[in-house]
Amino acid sequence: MTKITHITKLAEDIAPGRTSGMRLKENILSFILDIGGMDRTARETMEEKLRHNLGAVDEVDEIKIIQTSEKRPITIIAVGSGKGGVGKSTLSANLAIALKRAGKNVGMVDADIYGPSQPRLLNMEDEKPKAEDKKLIPVMNDFGIPMLSMGQLAKPGQAIAWRGPMAGNALHQLIDAHWGDTDLLIVDLPPGTGDVQLSMVQKHKPDAALIISTPQDLALIDAARAINFFDAAKVPIIGLVENMAGYLCPHCGEVSDPFGKGGAEAAADKMQLPFLGRIPLDMSIRMASDDGTPPALEDGPIGKGFAAIAHKVTTWLDEKNK
């Protein structure tokens, strides 16, 4: 084994996939270190370990590290609805939890600039992100999911009255952050197909979109608009989820359908899109969400419903990556 081959292997063991361009000339070792997505502490720790171990190699008297901030790829999934009041944010939070439990390095962006909900849903209302190198550092919650939201940056109860460019700039700061080893980013979009959605597809085009709707016709009309929006932007649609699908009365046990039944599944079939599953209208979801303890954390019927949707999402992503 040549000296430079040995050094390259040693560097790869310390910093997998982050070193390249190894060169040893006149006892000076130089190489490129990719620091994309790393915060300062992690970067300094890695540099120190590289210098200590590589500097112990014979014929290496000096080490020059050339840093690059080249970004590591993150798969972005946009969660949209076309209209408000369909439980999109609740489903986004629980989807992130279910994906995390399935082994994904998942992060959450609350892109609903004007009405952020994720800080409450993921129990992060009192946490404020810091910044480094002019970029935000996501806050890690108790569930192991890094998150950024305007709800963490604005004062509690503060009305955010921004025009399109300001909202678009805010979205850019939330997405273009120090996401570390996150490889899957869930973006909870605001209702509709307005400025934030346009900024999203222009600056941070999602790899895929997931559409949420209740079974009622009015919600499905708006969901179709959201689907058309992503189709026009050439963003693949993973599928539709039917939320608030059926209500089981805790007193009499009778099942009713206040928002109709099977509308989203029928719409998915008509538009030749996958139907990912349905989540019922259940008091426990509302109570757990208000308490900041997403029901996807549990293995009960509701948790299994979210887990089944997450499984279909990961299967879709695996097929796409092939």
TrEMBL record:
Alphabetically list the UniProt keywords: ATP-binding, Hydrolase, Iron, Iron-sulfur, Metal-binding, Nucleotide-binding
Q: Which InterPro entries does the protein's record reference?
A: Mrp/NBP35_ATP-bd, NUBPL-like, P-loop_NTPase, YlxH/NBP35
**Transmembrane parts of this sequence:** none
**Tree of life domain:** Bacteria
Instruction: Report the GO molecular function annotations.
Output: 4 iron, 4 sulfur cluster binding; ATP binding; ATP hydrolysis activity; ATP-dependent FeS chaperone activity; metal ion binding
The reply on keyword Chloroplast is: no
Tell me which residues bind ATP. Answer: G82, K83, G84, G85, V86, G87, K88, S89
Pfam families recorded:
ParA
- Which interval of the chain is the signal sequence? none
Q: Which GO terms describe its biological process?
A: iron-sulfur cluster assembly
Checking SUPFAM superfamilies in the record gives: P-loop containing nucleoside triphosphate hydrolases (SSF52540)
Q: How does it assemble?
A: Homodimer.
Task: Give the family this protein belongs to, as stated in its UniProt record.
Answer: Belongs to the Mrp/NBP35 ATP-binding proteins family.
Task of the protein: Binds and transfers iron-sulfur (Fe-S) clusters to target apoproteins. Can hydrolyze ATP.
Q: What is this protein called?
A: Iron-sulfur cluster carrier protein
| Species the sequence originates in | Sphingorhabdus lutea
